[in-house]
Design a protein that fits this description.
The chain has about 80 residues and is mostly helical. The chain is about 55% helix and about 0% strand. The protein has a domain of about 30 residues.
Length: about 80
């Protein structure tokens, strides 16, 4: 036999082994209780300080005067 024919015969085995390897990487392990507190901390949230973000955006858009119709009075001076 030529080497090319042997490789063609081994393709299903290679695909099976690759599939099993990929599936074993998707194992679901429960999260330990002592790790949950780290993930629940405020700094791990998408927006850890929503009030600060709101105020920063408000000041930025008030100074830029580039946003309108949000129900906020004032002009470009940032004094609202």
């Amino acid at each position: 036999m030529t080497p090319g024919v042997e490789v063609v015969k081994n393709i299903p085995l290679i695909v099976l082994l690759a599939g099993l390897t990929l599936l074993s990487a998707c194992a679901s392990q429960p999260l330990a209780a002592w790790d949950r507190d780290i993930l629940a901390q405020r700094k791990m949230q998408a927006d850890p300080y929503p009030l600060d973000s709101f105020l920063d955006e408000h000041i930025y858009f008030s100074k830029e005067a580039s946003r309108g119709g949000a129900g906020v009075g004032g002009g470009g001076c940032g004094c609202n």
